[in-house]
Amino acid sequence: MNKAFIVIIALCFLYACHNTTFVQGKRYYTDLCASCHMEDGTGLVALIPSLQNSEYLKNEQAKLPCIIRKGIPDTSFVAMPAYKDLTAYEIANIINYINSSFGNNIGPQTINQIEARLTACD
Ligand code: HEC
Predict the structure, then answer these.
(1) End-to-end alpha-carbon separation of the chain, Å?
(2) Using an 8 Å Cβ cutoff, are 71 and 81 in contact?
(3) How high is the pLDDT of residue 73?
(4) Which residues contact 99 (CB under 8 A, 6 or more apart)?
């Protein structure tokens, strides 16, 4: 087999392929969530909760898939929207991006965990 080919495959495993989940999570967060929670997770004073160094994220991991899929009804001034069309995989990437950003250092959720949690909130 061609050496260059092997190097490309190796690089793919070491870098690109491994990183696509993080890259997708970041892109979705930027497109869907940052308008409210801000690019750096600070939120907006009393209206939008901060996701930085978040106790909520640390303690409520099991609730996150349902929050993203179902939203949070308008309990205050602003409602958290529902993202009904995101797949379990996309939701996993968003959660795992947040879990490892904004000062959070929370381990990743697996796709199996996300799927089980989504089934429980349907
Ligand atoms: C239209 C603004 C808006 C957008 C867009 C939005 N959220 Fe929210 N989010 C909110 C509001 C408001 C709350 C608080 C709702 C409440 O508790 O009454 C919230 C709550 C949360 C919480 C709970 C945090 C806590 O401390 O209570 C998480 C986690 C969260 N959002 C994640 C996300 C993610 C991930 C996305 C993108 C997929 C997103 N949000 C998009 C407005 C938004």
Answers:
(1) 49
(2) yes
(3) 84
(4) 57, 61, 106, 107, 108, 109
**Type of residue numbered 113:** Q
Which candidate, 13, 25, 20, places its Cα nearest to that of 100? 25
Structure tokens that stand for 46 in this block: 């009393």
Compute the half-sphere exposure of residue 97: CA atoms within 13 Å on the CB side of its CA: 23
Position 3 scores a pLDDT of: 73
Give the binding-site residues of ligand 1, using a 6 Å CB cut-off: 32-33, 35-37, 48-49, 54, 56, 64, 67-68, 72, 75-76, 78, 80-81, 83, 94
Tracing tokens 């697996």 back to the chain, one arrives at: 110
Q: Does residue 7 have a pLDDT over 70?
A: no
